[in-house]
């Protein structure tokens, strides 16, 4: 199973090292590194990482764990947080605010043990299917079988691998933040499974799928798409 992660911190001397070490774990996809000045909650909502690493070494200048915890309490999906620090001073604060693991050493062995704990907990909770109501029927659809979602006024069409289309009586925005990280909004009317993309022509605003199908792409969503594609499709 593939997992996406982001890193939050201002420790420029440490960030490249942790990214390099995590690259040794092939099922982990790095989708972004952000400083404390970034709107962290907005990035989590936008990118939907399953795992978030936070660097915190200074009580006065570093990020507030309480603010993150309070903001995330309003989301339907909360990622797994691992705090990395060179001191034990923030251990109690981390526990009180829902941080799942605390690392003072980021050697490969310590990281591996922490990731093992994450996978053990996460694999038991992550859904593999979505249930949608269409007319009088309920459909259980595996995420891996969905190619893209298309807005159609106040309904959403799910295009599947088998070319079947199922209409859900919810808006595209309703589904946007409840889908796994590999589903990315690329247009006001489309959310696409990036594993189905064969090519993106940015100058022509076209997204080409594995099935010789084209769907439009908007520059409005270019940044978030590139962040996800960088590690998932370009490596």
UniProtKB/TrEMBL annotation:
Transmembrane segments: none
Top-rank lineage group of the source organism: Bacteria
InterPro entries for this protein: LytR-like (IPR046947), LytTR_DNA-bd_dom (IPR007492)
Record carries keyword DNA-binding: yes
Pfam families: LytTR
Positions of the HTH LytTR-type domain: 130-231
Presence of the UniProt keyword DNA-binding in the record: yes
Entry-linked PROSITE patterns: HTH_LYTTR
One Gene Ontology term of the molecular function aspect: phosphorelay response regulator activity
Alphabetic keyword roster: DNA-binding
Name by which UniProt lists this protein: LytTr DNA-binding domain-containing protein
């Amino acid at each position: 199973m593939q997992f996406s992660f982001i890193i939050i911190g201002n420790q420029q001397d440490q960030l490249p090292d942790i990214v390099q070490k995590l690259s040794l774990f092939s099922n982990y996809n790095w989708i972004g590194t952000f400083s404390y000045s970034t709107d962290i909650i907005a990035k989590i909502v936008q990118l939907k990482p399953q795992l978030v690493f936070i660097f915190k070494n200074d009580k006065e200048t570093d990020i507030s764990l309480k603010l993150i915890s309070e903001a995330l309490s309003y989301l339907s999906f909360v990622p797994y947080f691992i705090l990395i620090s060179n001191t034990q001073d923030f251990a109690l604060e981390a526990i009180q605010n829902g941080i799942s693991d605390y690392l003072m050493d980021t050697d490969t062995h310590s990281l591996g043990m922490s990731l093992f704990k994450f996978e053990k907990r996460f694999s038991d909770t992550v859904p593999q299917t979505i249930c949608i109501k269409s007319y009088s029927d309920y459909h259980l659809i595996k995420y891996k079988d969905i190619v893209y979602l298309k807005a159609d006024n106040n309904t959403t069409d799910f295009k599947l691998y088998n070319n079947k289309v199922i209409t859900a009586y919810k808006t595209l925005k309703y589904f946007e933040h409840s889908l796994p990280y590999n589903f990315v909004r690329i247009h006001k009317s489309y959310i696409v499974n990036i594993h189905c993309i064969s090519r993106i022509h940015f100058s022509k605003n076209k997204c080409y799928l594995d099935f010789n199908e084209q769907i439009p792409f908007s520059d409005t969503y270019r940044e978030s798409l590139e962040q996800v594609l960088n590690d998932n499709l370009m490596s």
